[in-house]
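Folded chain entry —
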Amino acid sequence: MKLKTLSTAIILATVPMTGVFAAALDRSGQSIAAFLQPGNYFEAGISILDPSVSGKAKAAYGGGNLSDMAGDYYFPSAALKIQATDHFSVGLLYDQPFGADATYSVHDPLVALGTGLFHANGEATAVDVTTQNLSLILGFQPTENWNIYGGAAYQTIKGDVQLRGAAYGTATTFGGYNANIDEDGAVGWLAGVAYQIPEIALKASLTYRSEVEHTVNAKESAIPAGAIPAIINNPALAGKAATGSTDITTPQSINLDLQTGIMANTVAFANVRWVNWKDFALRPYAFGVASAIAGPSVGQPNGFDLVAYTDDQISATVGVGRKLNDKWAGTFSVGWDSGAGNPVSTLGPTEGYWNLGLGLQYSPTAQTFIAGGVKYFWLGDAEAQPASMFGTSNAIADFEDNDALAYGLKIGYKF
């Protein structure tokens, strides 16, 4: 059964919404599919997420309703692949692999007055993290079937965090903490292998991406008076250097992508992704000095991290793509994400998801296409905890029955 005529439908499996609302800070899914397209190829896409994530503070923290705290966001992607010779190819891939955007607001006046997630001045707990990734990939194809590839990835990261409320300040007085992380760039690497049988639309690839180690000088401060805020503003009060660097290591990951023809004009595809969030931790310098002082009072003798996770993330997507005619093709997919542990950080209070996706592609010519898609996410229920409770079963709020919509648009050109 020859399925070469399916080339336009096959591309649809890469509609840019692989991750979108994955566990921890995972966002783009870091797909390598564009580099594995035949011949010379260019694509550009954008994904947009519209989440609804609300919850309720536990009774000890005011019991108030926490309205939608997940901000809408979008992220672009682009790729250029050149088949330089029959045996060598080169690619340039851009995406925004990790990120976060959350701001808490409340409806209960008791919570607004400081018994929960907010400080009495009404400022909100918030986080905004952005990364960018540019990967240069070289591929060697010893035969038509095999592709061995690897390369370097330049990654930037920046972010802002502010903590407010008694949830962060009753015992540890971090309820007025601020951190601004200026953009930093660092280099990682990737490597992989792919196998294909074009006649039956079979493709399989396995890609490893390394950790990327950043060292930044975070600008930290604390608003309220007290011993712990004073140490955050000046770690020298605790006998440490007045300023120091902060290490941020974005996690290693593995992607497995599969695709095969199953009948005339129809392919099945699957993606499985593993991300090593269990070993990720963020402890800004001054925050770490202060947490080492405050930690014993909350059962954390070695201090605590601002953000950390207990589990690695595993996600999977399976689906089918079908060529409807010479110009139109469509896909249907089902996705699942394990989450990265529960309870979770208050800065991202969801625990995995299930989703359903639909995609449609229009090819006005044999060389060009426009693809779009939509996914609906059922977000996993989660208990949220501040940094000082990490590693325990304690939590300050419940987030249940939340969902999200994602939209994607991509254009492509084969030349």
In short: Residues 1-6, 107-122 have pLDDT under 50 and may be disordered. Helices lie at 7-11, 109-115, 227-233, 285-294. The radius of gyration is 23 Å. Residues 385 and 395 are 4 Å apart (CA to CA).
